[in-house]
Every structure is written in structure tokens, then in C-alpha cells.
Amino acid sequence: MSGWSAFQSMPMLAHPNAVLPMTYCVGLMLESGLVMVGDTRTNAGVDNIATFRKLQITEVPGERVIAIATAGNLAVTQSVVSHITEGMTMADGTRHTLHTAPSMFELAQFVGRAVRHVADRDSEALHQDGGRFDCSLLVGGQIAGGPPRLFMIYRAGNFVEATQDTPYLQIGEHKYGKPILDRAVTYDTPLNEALKLALISMDSTIRSNLAVGLPVDAVVVPRDALAASVNVRIGQDDAYFESVRHAWSDALREAHQHIPNPPYGA
Amino acid sequence: MSGWSAFQSMPMLAHPNAVLPMTYCVGLMLESGLVMVGDTRTNAGVDNIATFRKLQITEVPGERVIAIATAGNLAVTQSVVSHITEGMTMADGTRHTLHTAPSMFELAQFVGRAVRHVADRDSEALHQDGGRFDCSLLVGGQIAGGPPRLFMIYRAGNFVEATQDTPYLQIGEHKYGKPILDRAVTYDTPLNEALKLALISMDSTIRSNLAVGLPVDAVVVPRDALAASVNVRIGQDDAYFESVRHAWSDALREAHQHIPNPPYGA
Question: Which pTM was predicted?
Fold first, then answer.
């Protein structure tokens, strides 16, 4: 209802190049490793909805495992991913890809450079069209010789990193799925429980924002394994996710019934 | 963390005239009557926070009871409230206030006119200052001879009304407090339980958005009573609200523990 109201009173925001959160991806960087979950729904207006993978994984077993999730304008994020996959020529004439980055920190800088490269190419045209350049990415993984790390790259190409104090990062529609993460996730949460919590967080978001939808991609990368232990697409027919949806909805409904009514005398 | 990140990457949004949700008010129009809850925190940037009442009630016992909640630019919303309280002269030369409106529908139109009046005065100057004209209001209550009704007035002065299908309306930071309403509120929810649910919804919002804060004002207007049965300010020292906060947080934390871990083999 609020979403509909917002469209009604702010018709500009319905423009396909406008900035409405229509993706949800979350990454958790824990003591035991990395968990990343992303939805696949994209839209250019509510009348044009399609499925695109937003969470992509690159593995060279024993050497590097990198998961990248994207949010924002699909034309922008696809270009960024193509640049870091196909490679970009740097100022010194060398050519880099996500396979050549010597560390996760170097990789985050490289992805930031790719974002700026696409911004240089597209942002003026997007602005002329009444939209704006918009994208954000989660870049997580581990490269042999270094620890697993998780970064969030902004549309300006700058980035922040998950820490022990705040071990998760979100892109896109982050609000609905944040309360469960804030209350239940800590740095020492085991990987399997963390995946469950990420899926509950995703379910809360799907329940409240039509622009976020199944199927969902989920990746788990245990620390120092240098390979994914889970790399799964969860669709409508996934019995476990279906049971999470029902159990969480029932739990929320029941939780308030144990709280007494107010004493103010209604 | 996400809020901080957003500020970092979008410095424009930190402008005091920018549109960041920094209020939460909710109204529920039920079979048994009306519940409205609003916070009191206002800010001009995160370094300038103050307390202003956003939920105001006007009672003429036996004749009309009207509750108005506001969100958006404080200079705008205070002007709108002053206009509808002091009165505005219409095109036909008559002068109207919220005391002269013959029905809740007429009142909603009158408030919409006040919004447009302030927009005519201020929106160009706000735009010049890098901000934008922004406000929204909830107008709920009952006027003798008609049923209780609840409207949400947009910054364009147009409005929608709560219905039996969707018996609640929110303004400001609506996302964090929406899941509990979606799952637990129906048109036949009793007033006292509805007040509890509105307070849980407020607590979820306060927990996740620093720009929404105590004290909270709460009003309950039973159908056909033509007077408020609850009109209370809930502060830091309110034992019931404190117990709600703890109970709800514990319930959320515990809820996920009853859901099994995923079978994908992390």
C-alpha cells in the first residue's frame, strides 16, 4: 500500500532509471567464513519484471574464490561485471581481471575503478534521461595468502569493509531484512546458522517489497577452503525455504501474543 | 552502519532540507475505533536533534475528535498545522478551521488545501536551497453525524483513506514497523491490542532508525465516543513500553532458533 501510494504521489520515481531499491543482497563475513545471498528480480517499472543473476561466483579451487553481488541500474552493473571479468587496461598499460588481483583489497580497488569507468561512460547520458548513475556491489571471497574479506563498493567507486563489530553488509532494499541480522548475527555465528539467518532476512524483504523476488542465489565459502561449500539456487519449489517462510511468519505473529496489552486504558 | 554508509556516499542527502525519513507515525482505523502513535524526534542533520510533538489531538467532546500526525520538513508541517488551526480564507470568502469542517472528508480536503498553500509559499525557496518541499500527514478522527475515518495527505495535497482491507496508514520511516502490522493487524483487531501492535511497530522503528525516538505520543479514539480514551506521552521511564521493547527483541531472537538450519550442506 505504501509502495503504491509512493508511486501515486511521486510519479517521477516510477521512471526506470530512478533510484528505487529493487534488489536485496546480503553478505556476512564471519569467523568461520563468508555467506552471501542475493535475489534475482529486476524490473524497469512494475510492468516489466525479469530474472537476472545478481550474485555470481568465480572459483579457482585452492587459489581464489570470489563472490560478487550487484544492485542498482542493471545496464550499469552488467557493464561493471563485464569489465572486471573481461579485464581493464590500467594506466601503466597492464591488463587486469578479477583473476589477476593479488589480494581482496586490490580486488576491491579494481572493482571501484570499473565502477568509475562505467560512470565516466554512462552517467551524463543517464542524467540527461532523467535518471542517475546508480550501482553498489558486494565483493567477498578469499585469495590464497590472505584472509577472507567482504567489501561494499559504492557508486562513487569508494568502499567499506565488514568488520567483527558489524560482520554483515547489505545492498539494495536493506531495511526489511536488517532487524533479524542486528539481533541474531555475531562474528562467531556458525556458517550454517548464518545462512539460515540470511535466508530469513531475504524472506522478510521478499514479503514486503515486490521488487525483490525468487529465485534466490546463496553461496557459502568456509574460511581457508578456497572453494564454495554451498552454491545453490533456491526457487519456488525449494521445500526448506518454503518452511522458513511459514515458520518465520508464524513466529512473528505469535511473538506479540505473549506481550501483555497496554495499561493506558483503551 | 548502513545509514552511516549512505551518508558517506551520498553527502547531498545530509542536507537538512533533504528527504530522509526521520519521523514515524502510524494510524489504524479499525471496527472499534482509531489508534494513532507518533514519535517526537526532529533533526536538522544528525548533529542537531530536538523534540517536537508530531501527533496533536483536538477534542470538542460529543461533537468532534481529530488527531493529526505530521512528517517531513518541520517548517512546512508546523505551518500547515498553524493554518488549519488558525484558519484559512477560502475562495468564496468564508474562513475555515478544523473546527468548522462538517465531515472528515471535508477536513481531509481542507488539510490538503493548507498543504498546497504552504507549498505555494515555500517550495521555490526550498528548491533554491537545494532541498524540496516535503510533508505528509495523517488525519484521523470522527465528527458527529459521520463515521470515524483516517486519511493520509501527501505533499501534493491529494490523499488516500484507510479501508477495511488495509486498515493502517504510515508516514515517515515506514519500513521497519511494517512487517508486524502486515502480519498481525486486521480490521477487527480490538483497540487495546491494536495500540500494543502500534507500539511494537514504533519500537522496531526506533531500534533501527536513530532519527526516530522517544518520547512517543499515543491516542486511542473509540468509535462513536467522540472523545479520546487514551491520550498519553510515553517516555524513557515508561515501564510498559520498556517491557514491550525487551519482550519483542527477545521474541525475535528466539523465533529463529526454532527454525532448523538449511540442508544445503554448509
Answer: 0.85
Report which secondary-structure segment, H or E, holds B72.
strand B64-72
Chains A and B: how many Cβ contacts under 8 Å?
Answer: 166
Could you report the per-residue pLDDT of B48-70, keeping only the tens digit for each? 778 888 999 999 999 999 999 99
Residues of B in contact with A174 (CB under 8 A): 2
ipTM of the complex: 0.79
Domains of chain B: 20-249 (3.60.20.10)
Closest CB to A230: pick one of B2, B248, B266. Answer: B266
Residue B167 · residue B35 · CB < 8 Å: no
Query: Is A215 at the interface with chain B, CB within 8 A?
Result: no
Which amino acid appears at position B13 of this protein?
A: L
Helix (H), strand (E), coil (C) string for chain A: CHHHHHHHHCHHHHCCCCCCCCCEEEEEEECCEEEEEEECEEECCCCCEEECCCEEEEEECCCEEEEEEEEECHHHHHHHHHHHHHCEECCCCCEECCCCCCCHHHHHHHHHHHHHHHHHHHHHHHHHCCCCCCEEEEEEEEECCCCCEEEEECCCCCEEECCCCCCEEEEECCCCCHHHHHHHCCCCCCHHHHHHHHHHHHHHHHHHCCCCCCCEEEEEEECCCCCCCEEEEECCCCHHHHHHHHHHHHHHHHHHHHCCCCCCCC
Give the sign of the dihedral formed by CA A248, CA A249, CA A250, CA A252: positive
A120 touches chain B (CB under 8 A): no
What amino acid is encoded at B141 in this protein? G
Please indicate if any CB of chain A lies within 8 Å of the CB of B100. Answer: no
Nearest to B185 by CA among B175, B195, B172: B195
